Structure formats: structure tokens, C-alpha cells
Amino acid sequence: MCIKNKKELLSQGNKKLREDGLSIVSHVLYVVDPYVATKKLINLKKNILSIGFLHIDLSKKNNIYILGGGKAVFPIVKALEEILIEKITEGLIVVKEGQQGILKKIKIRIANHPLPNKAGFYAAQEIKKIAEKAQ
């Protein structure tokens, strides 16, 4: 995330105070970025997936499914895909228009938010089918 109108914000008033304020805000936006936070929290070394203090031996798992929806789902899943690309069996996320991007192994469905539509209904059915494979 970045401040797109930085030049405009620095064009008046106390420039030094504004620069300091924008520096703080920029840092906060970086720290809370879902992509950055996911990359910091999760890593894979050999077959050991570490999520904070949790460690999972993926050699004992047959399949990895990634499912999700919501405002932060795309950047989170983009980071997960980069970490787990060879290990992912299947995945699907639901985003609203304008929040999608390109993923390599995980399918993306676009649905309305906050009011549901048929696309969201069908995406939920697809997610359910994939989730049932994980049982």
C-alpha cells in the first residue's frame, strides 16, 4: 500500500511535520498489509510449514486446499501461493470486483459485496465441494 497523493499532501503547511507523519503512516500501512503480514508469519522449509509457533509436517498430508473470501483474501492467498505453490492441491477464493489479480494455482470468483448475488452463491457451492474433499 502506498500514499498516492503524497506530493499534494507535502505541498503546503509544515513540510517536515507532514513528512514525518506520512513516514509513520506509510510504515503502518506496510506493517498491516495482509500480503506482508502473511509472508512474515508463514514459511516453508523442506516439508515443514511454520505458521507462527505452529509447525506442520506436510510430508504427512496428502492434499492442501486453500479456500477463502473477503477483503484481504487476495493478498493473503497470493502470499500463500508463493510459499506453497508446489504443495497446493486446489484452491478457490471469492473477491469483489476490483480486488482480483492473477494467481497460478488458485481459482478466483468475483461476487457482489455487501449484497449477495448468484455469482456468490455459485462460488460458495464450489468452495463447499472443495472443502468436502478435505474431510
Plain-language structure description:
The protein is an alpha/beta fold and 135 residues long. The protein has a domain at 62-133. Helices cover 42% and strands 20% of the residues. The protein has a three-stranded antiparallel beta sheet with strand order 1-2-3. A three-stranded parallel beta sheet has the order 4-5-6, with helices on both faces. It starts with 5 loop residues before the first helix and ends with a helix. 13% of the residues are buried.
Describe, in short, the structure shown.
The protein has 135 residues and is an alpha/beta fold.
Shape: flat
Compute the number of strand runs. 6
How does the major sheet shape up? 3 strands, antiparallel
- Fraction of helical residues: 40-55%
Instruction: Kindly provide the radius of gyration, computed on alpha-carbon positions and rounded to a whole number of angstroms.
Output: 19 Å
Number of helices: 5
Give the helix/strand class.
Answer: alpha/beta
Mean pLDDT: 92
In what order do the strands lie side by side in the largest sheet? 1-2-3
Question: Spans with pLDDT under 50 lasting ≥5 residues?
Answer: none
N-to-C SSE string, H for helix and E for strand: HHHEEEEHEEH
Task: Tell me what portion of residues adopts beta-strand conformation.
Answer: 15-25%
**Through-space gap between termini:** 37 Å
